[in-house]
Amino acid sequence: MAPTYSQLRILTLVRDHVARHGYPPSLRELAAAAGITFAAVRKHLQRLAAQGLIELPERTARGIRLVGAADAPDPRTLSLPLIGRVAAGAPILVEANVEKHLCVDRGLFGPAPDYLLRVEGDSMIDAGILDGDLIAVRQTPEARNGQIVVARVDGAVTVKVFRRDRAGIRLLPRNPEYAPIEVDATREFAIEGLYCGLVRSAR
Fold first, then answer.
1. How many whole angstroms separate alpha carbon 37 and alpha carbon 4?
2. Which of 6, 100, 160, 201 is an active site residue?
3. 123 in catalytic set
4. What whole-number distance in Å separates Cα of residue 134 and Cα of residue 202?
5. What does the alpha-carbon distance between residue 125 and residue 148 come to, in Å, rounded to a whole number?
6. pLDDT at residue 26 above 90?
7. Which of 5, 9, 40, 121 is found 20 to 30 A from 139 (Cα to Cα)?
8. Long-range CB contacts (within 8 A, 24+) of 93-102
9. Catalytic pick from 6, 43, 79, 123?
10. What pLDDT, on the 0 to 100 scale, is given for residue 72?
11. Backbone phi, then psi, for 15, in 5-degree steps?
12. What pLDDT score was predicted for residue 79?
């Protein structure tokens, strides 16, 4: 059975930690980095071990060991899953589907992203984000005013500039032809992650 997106994300976090520090993360560090519970991390690791991608020696805090094809790559690169698409315009539904993995230069991004999304639309062209670009996203539920975020509004996902004030939350385009998205208390809203940079697709 192929690993799920959640399992691949844990595997990528392990691989990147090894590349940065020279040793694997603890389960507690993995849980914090992934934003999930300790028990959920342990379950994902057990399934990765069952698939032969890692080894989990018992009674060792940092005992995760990458094996076979999962072994650590060039530390100058990141292997990021491309998991779907995001609207730069009106929000569109996105399926968290791993289309493929891309190896990208770690130096292109800061902070290190967790995944890639393909942009559809042109509402962010003045921020240099074009239709068809792959944007790198670091998963987090928080953002500061002025940061570019991937946000979920009423079950659909969009990329915009985040702004919160006394009137509420607005998601601002970077194209004068588009209006801001107003988010009031009646709408379902969540920040999915922060924009970290992009990979320009060939045109």
1. 17
2. 160
3. yes
4. 11
5. 13
6. no
7. 121
8. 93/155, 93/156, 93/157, 94/156, 94/157, 96/5, 97/5, 98/5, 98/8, 101/8, 102/134, 102/199
9. 123
10. 45
11. -60, -45
12. 72
For 5-70, CATH number out of 1.10.760.10, 3.40.50.150, 1.10.10.10, 3.30.470.20 equals: 1.10.10.10
Tokens (6 digits) for 31: 């849980």
pLDDT at 37 over 60: yes
Please tell me the class of the 77-199 domain.
Answer: mainly beta
Q: Contact 171/123 with Cβ under 8 angstroms?
A: no
CATH 1.10.10.10 domain range(s) in the chain: 5-70
Cβ neighbour number for residue 81 with a 10 Å cutoff: 20
| The residue type at 200 | R
pLDDT at 35 over 90: no
pLDDT in tens, 122-166: 999 999 999 999 999 988 889 999 999 999 999 889 999 999 998
- 151, 163 contact by CB (below 8 A): no
- CA pair distance 162, 30, nearest whole angstrom: 27
Residues of the chain with pLDDT > 70, as a percent, come to 85
